[in-house]
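Hello K.,

You asked for the raw outputs rather than the summary table, so here they are, unedited. I folded two proteins back to back in the same session to keep the settings identical. This is the first:
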Amino acid sequence: MSTQDPIDILLSRLEQASAGLLYPSESDYPFEAIYWEWDQDAPLSSESLREYLEEDEDTPISEIPLERFFRPVAEEKDWHSDEERLEVQQYQNLRKLLEQLLQDLRVFKVGDIEVDVFIVGKVPNTEDYAGLSTVVIET
């Protein structure tokens, strides 16, 4: 019997929790589980992320609070249908899982108009980061 790599298990859990979810913007994109072997000299910041992703100096990179990212999708409204309520529950569960598995969760937005979004946190007992990525369209 082989044992699974803890990173594979972590990524699998994130993929399962985000399966079927599309983050709403002008175009809805799915989530993808990501793992970054953090080989930068500096801790995670907009600048060290720019270097890690090999983005140009003029590419906008901003950080937003985790709460702000999840607010539009993880708060149930009176007018939601049963299907929408289930989706809200799935987003709430996804956020809880991210908070359980990762430390110091942060949300970075990279680019303009077609914006890459990275919800990442530190993998316990490593220098590495993991989480989810998606794309939002902001015009």
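The second followed immediately with the same parameters:
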Amino acid sequence: MKKTFFFLALTFIFMASCNEDLFTEDLDSQSKLNLLEKTSDPFLNGKAITRDLKINSSIGTTTMSQSEDCINSYLVTIEGTGQATFMGNYKLYMTMCVDAEGNAVSECLGTITAANGDKYYTRLIKTVHGENDYFEGTFLITGGTGKFTGASGEFITIGKFLVQYPTGYFDVVGEGWIKF
């Protein structure tokens, strides 16, 4: 029993007195940095990481109305819910102005808000419309709040999207990347 206790005490003293440099002193600076990056939690070291983004569903309504915000055009408000990686369940809110033919006359800007309140902001940069309300939209991620502060990225959504007066709908899925 005394030998076991002595051995455990000696082991503890040895481990407590070890310095990390004993294990890394032969490594150059770049190798130490690589080792640190591999063993550190990426969320704690302040470095943004690019990740695959998947929008499993996004559904909701569109509303077209006259507004002082859209002179000689109509305000389109897009509201809905969905589920996506790094967001979980989310709420979507977007606005843009369109002319009488439905052509955009302002940027389409949006906010996607996770259940915990973290947000990222989007800007629609390209659309393709097809038969039967088919829609394909390319969005940029232009920042955010919470864990998405400074976020960037790009994603494409496809599905059905109908903007009409006074109400329409959307039902899309998507994928892309996000860096935060």
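Strands lie at 50-66, 74-84, 88-98, 109-114, 119-129, 134-144, 152-162, 167-179.

Happy to rerun anything if the numbers look odd on your end.

Regards,
P.
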